[in-house]
Amino acid sequence: MSEISKRLMKGASKPVGAPAALVLEDGAVFRGTSCAAAGEVFGEICFNTSLEGYLEVITDPSYAGQIIAMTYPQIGNYGVNEDDAQSDEPALRGLVVRDLCTTPSNWRSAQSLPDYLRAHGVVAVEGVDTRALVRHVRDRGAQRAVLSTVDVDEASLLRKVRESASLVGQNLAATVSCARPYRFAADRLPASQAFALAAPPAPRFKVAAYDCGAKRSILENLVRAGCDVTCVPWDTPAADVLALAPDGVFLSNGPGDPEAVEGTFTQVEQLLGKVPVFGICLGHQMIAKAAGAAIEKLKFGHRGGNHPVMNLRTRRVEITAQNHGFGLVFPSLGALVPELSGGVAAHEGDLRCWVERGVAPVVANERFGRIQLTHVNLNDGTAEGVAFLDIPAFSVQYHPEASPGPTDAHYLFTAFARLMEGRADYLDIDIAEDRLAGWSFAGRKEASHA
Ligand SMILES: NC(=O)CC[C@H](N)C(=O)O
């Protein structure tokens, strides 16, 4: 019998795991069976709607403190290739799926997902009615949860989850940041991408990156945009960063409650105006906090690969990858500047009103001058990006590096390079042109002629 047939046969008789239970703090109970490491874990329950890219999700350090339910029903069917990992260790607390595939089928697969999860001690449960779970979380909102394969008693788990710590108020960035500064070397480019890409350009910009739990693909994209990247711990003093004489400062994604990451945003406050700054996700929230903004907790967050965002400057819609549970309250940054906001003098309604007006509104911030709303989420009208008009800084709430997800917003890495070149039009890039020059086709053409 061939190796493949043997593996398929093995998959046919999938072992049934021990009973497991997921209990939410509001008393909802979801039952399933253990399918990876045994144990009992506590975290905020959230769901991700990506159809693929489960390893990137599982290894995204921004999931520290969270139990993730995948809405796509079968997870693990193309196995695991660690070149896709976004960090060396999964930081999530637990994983909930409908069906975990034990017999992957893909030429890149080096290991099955259940084996990977077990090797990394990740508690996971399958057989859960994930559609019911997601509807519940969508209606009732994010909340604390416990996932257990060792105790399946409802009353006992409910008592424990109600005693567990909330994600709100926790500085989880400190738990996944680097311990000391290091220079990022882009040496882990997956073969699947390497064949599609030209070699990275020679570095033109020295960039200091605050590492609050940075995804590897973000750093990789910075290298591809021409940056020589030095990562620094989340609480590095601004003076130490400026002593590196960087051409730009990057603020990474990261887990947990942004309000609790004071050690980063108080430093960002001192960097703004002195050096070009670009932030992604938690980095966007850090820039907003540095400018005195209010941050709100979203009812159930945005996590997936198909969130429509409008770029209000170009009026193009980008389909974006997202992973966040908190968001910037744009009006809290300052009063509208009517002459730069289509004559509108007061904030009203959700931010989609600017889509209808065809205007990218501008507020006057007490500390840093004029700030423009550049991007809006078309699903719920939340703020997705801002650009400072009087100092060189901009940020987005979503993920231009995707991993997993669509690459429409890759142009933001090009924009950061242009910002460091001092170009005033740095944000006005044709996304179709940029995709051709970036991750998608141009390199592939070269590679195929090589
Ligand atoms: N991916 C991220 O950087 C997430 C930012 C923040 N922890 C949030 O949930 O909103």
Automatic annotation (TrEMBL):
Domain spans labelled Carbamoyl-phosphate synthase small subunit N-terminal: 18-148
Transferase keyword on record: no
Active site location: C281 (nucleophile), H399, E401
Signal sequence segment: none
Protein name as catalogued: Carbamoyl phosphate synthase small chain
Pfam families (UniProt xref): CPSase_sm_chain (PF00988), GATase (PF00117)
Function statement: Small subunit of the glutamine-dependent carbamoyl phosphate synthetase (CPSase). CPSase catalyzes the formation of carbamoyl phosphate from the ammonia moiety of glutamine, carbonate, and phosphate donated by ATP, constituting the first step of 2 biosynthetic pathways, one leading to arginine and/or urea and the other to pyrimidine nucleotides. The small subunit (glutamine amidotransferase) binds and cleaves glutamine to supply the large subunit with the substrate ammonia.
Binding annotation for L-glutamine: S62, G254, G256, L282, Q285, N323, G325, F326
SMART domains per the UniProt record, alphabetical: CPSase_sm_chain
Family: Belongs to the CarA family.
Entry-linked PROSITE patterns: GATASE_TYPE_1 (PS51273)
Enzymatic class: ligase
Origin organism lineage: Bacteria, Bacillati, Actinomycetota, Coriobacteriia, Eggerthellales
Reaction equations catalysed: L-glutamine + H2O = L-glutamate + NH4(+); hydrogencarbonate + L-glutamine + 2 ATP + H2O = carbamoyl phosphate + L-glutamate + 2 ADP + phosphate + 2 H(+)
Subunit structure: Composed of two chains; the small (or glutamine) chain promotes the hydrolysis of glutamine to ammonia, which is used by the large (or ammonia) chain to synthesize carbamoyl phosphate. Tetramer of heterodimers (alpha,beta)4.
Residue ranges, annotated region (CPSase): 1-205
Pathway(s) it belongs to: Pyrimidine metabolism; UMP biosynthesis via de novo pathway; (S)-dihydroorotate from bicarbonate: step 1/3; Amino-acid biosynthesis; L-arginine biosynthesis; carbamoyl phosphate from bicarbonate: step 1/1
One MF term in the entry's GO annotations: carbamoyl-phosphate synthase (glutamine-hydrolyzing) activity
Keyword Metal-binding in record: no
Organism: Eggerthella hominis
EC number: 6.3.5.5
Record NCBIfam families: CPSaseIIsmall (TIGR01368), PRK12838.1 (NF009475)
